[in-house]
What does this fold into?
Amino acid sequence: MRRFTSSKGLNMLLLLLLLGGFLLNFFMQTASLGMNAGSALAWISQYYWLYIFGSLFFFFVLLCFAVIIPNIYAGTLLAFAGCLLIGIADYKKLSTTGEPLFPWDLMQLKNAREMSKITSGMVSPLAVVMAVALLVVAVYLIWKLPKVKIRFSLRAAFTILSTVMIAGFIWMVSGQHALATSIQYQNIYWNQKVNYSQNGFVFAFTGNLKQKLIEKPDDYSQESIARIAKKYDVLPADKDKTAALTERPNIMYMMDEAFFDVTRLPGFTFSEDPLAFIHQEGQNTPSGYLLSPEFGGNTANIEFEALTGLSMYFLKDGSIPYQQKIVKMSEMPSIVSILKGRGYQALAVHPFDDTFYNRNRVYPILGFDEFTSEKEMENSNRITPNGYMSDMSAVQEAVDKLKAAKQPTFLHLVTMQNHFPFIKGLNGENTTSVGGTQPAWKDELETYVHDTKLTDEAVAYLAKELKTIQRPTIVAFWGDHLPALSADIYTQAGWDNDPRLKHETKLVYLANFDIGKEPAGTMSPAFIGPTVFELSGQEMPVFYKLLREVQAEIPGLSKSVLIGSDGPLKDLSEQQQALLEDYRLVEYDILEGENYSQDLLF
It folds into this structure.
């Protein structure tokens, strides 16, 4: 074991770690800019102080690992590899969903095994081979290089120094103190893409560590919430769209993973209609489109809107309420808790790992009595051993639970069958051919079309089984977001510059009683609850009356596009702005405020 006995050796170590810090920061910025080194260099020339400070941050990270772990090579390489992986994850997330990596995304590391399956196909086999080869080389070098150890006193001093500097950097950035501002850092939380591209990965990522979901409105107070409660409480209870039912109906949500009407893509031809039942049934029942707040991922955010009635529109870019806030709460008003107060039992079914997005902890907070994950499902058929549980199995599980229920039931089903990757054969042999595709992604598109056909069959089965359930039952079926297909598919379809089309998924209401067939139009997930209440003739709490008023004016409410009753909105009227301000105040009160709404609006 060799020790540093001269300042020359120590200086060489520090110089190498400093160089490593600058290289790491350059790589992270290159990854944030689409692996474009030229763009990274241009950014450095404009924001050189941000680059220098960010590089020093990485230097202290490397130093900390080098001195904490007895073997300085192992510690340094471990830290270096970890940072590289974060950079690669940032690049892959950007290229797949269009969003950068956020601190709360790292919470999914506890689901590493499931994540490896979900992300299968996103990393090329060559990249995997190269990563393994580099790992082998690194281990070999650690084993062969001379064992160098820093004496304990110096190691302790460097540990304290690096820890203080790392903590100081986080304190400076997350609090946006004067020093951070003086070097051109500005926390652009309202637009995270710009935040990361302008401030660089290190500053943007660190600035999000203490980020609240929503900023406090200037006029927030108990009086303002009381004013809102009084304002909407006097509105009519319902619109009498259906005859009153003699008993409380079952309500079922079916949120289908990555499902949208693929036949809407122009320029492609299909050997058959993969959504034959949904298209036909949509003419006989309320149907339309869901304006998803997400694209390609972040399923939990669509679920958040549908279950709580709160909107992602008001939250900061990149927010995931399940992971950032709700998991820390003791209770949360939702359609689940509303129905529980009316004598319902509340069941959730998700044919996947129960800890994903902290559902196992979030669902009880929302009011669910029981959560059936893949471990507890009695209907657990996978079309192939490597595939996800089929939509048909998930629907059969839901139907069995509704038939066995002794009381009115709210059942929330989140499926997995159509999740990325779209590997040919994963859900059986493709049966629908697609014309007009490029050879490079013909199999991918045909596989996705085949998956949606299987979903159509599952929905047809659900509609048939509804007729055998004795209790009145209404179902809201929708896709959570468009799939992360190869970008060229959407480019060929001409959807790159149309945010509405890239966020509209299919929405259909089914029931075993008459709910009419008035078109549903395009609506946000937050408005599914009041629509279901309206279709089934149930009374609405004050908050749902507020939602109904917003829906009447702005049924499609998202950061990407606003949809009014007559089409896209460019400018909001004073009435619409006032509605949104009331909505924002209530949402802040529930998520970050004092929750005066609990007693006044629910």
Summary: The first strand starts at residue 2 and ends at 3. The two ends are 68 Å apart (CA to CA). The chain is about 50% helix and 10% strand.
